[in-house]
Amino acid sequence: PERSRARSGARGRQACDPQGELTMMAIPYRLPLGACFLMLTACAASPSVPLVDIENTSKSDVHDTSDTDDVAVTLTTAIDVSVPPPYRKQVEYAQIEGLSLFREDRAAWLATDAVVAAGIVDRHRSMATGWLAQQQDADGRIWNVAFTAKDGEQGVAYADVHVDLAASEPIISTQENTPPRRLSGWEEVLTYARIAFSKKEWLRCADTYNPSTQVFVDEGRKYVVVRMLPAQLKPDHLPMGGFHRFKIPMFEGESVDHFAQTSSCIDIDTSALDTNESFGMTLTTTSAPTEFDVFTSLSYRRPHYVITDAGSWLVENGKIRWLSEPKETP
Length: 330
Known about the structure:
Blueprint: E1 11-13, H1 33-45, H2 88-117, H3 120-124, E2 128-135, E3 142-151, E4 154-164, E5 171-182, H4 185-198, E6 209-218, E7 221-230, E8 237-239, E9 244-249, E10 257-260, E11 267-269, E12 279-282, H5 291-300, E13 304-308, E14 311-316, E15 319-324
């Protein structure tokens, strides 16, 4: 694979055991893998329509996404007192998901370097399909990055890289799976979602995109969340446009939510900026900064200002502050 740099309680991501399944929180029935595939196929083909009835889909697949004892990821974050009440929940989500996205991106980058250096990718290049980074702990500092492939019709992982970001220097443990291990039920669902939504039509602002695919639980409702991140291919050009989020419900009665951060491609040329100089942008798609703003601020190691219909904001070091109300136009 090629890679470029680039709430507590009832809300949060879920940790994944690569050898097992994900915890199903507050889901009153077992969701077969076949049903997940049918739902994702319907979403990818036509995200504006409700999902298929999962109770009437095929339950013949040998894999399922049944309950296990894996822990649920419930990160917390402090919200700055400046943030107005109507936006505090949105800011909370942005800070948690933006930090997780930053750590996921770093873990996948380190893991990719490790498998490439060990020659593992070269040995499996003909069957490789990408990677899948899954959070392993409630703090979001430990990750497993599975490097996925197709063995006939079966999804497999030819390598697993354990990345521990808790120490001052990351601890990386690489395992080549011989033979490749079969993907768990949820890993297959996430891999399928990654591939399906990568092929959809959406604003692309880079030749290379780094995908993020996670399970997200909001008040007991389970979603697959696919994010598309434009890769930073030049050190002095920072992509700020072309970020996308697809939130796919794993239940009936709700449609896919597609959020595009911008409606055009925006790159920041840093060649004329000082090392820590900030930059700014105006967003018309959201009233408060999103996880992508937190992610880019952390990844690019620069504060940046965001102007929305709710006023001006500062995103710095993974935190969001509200600065002022919108200026009135004469």
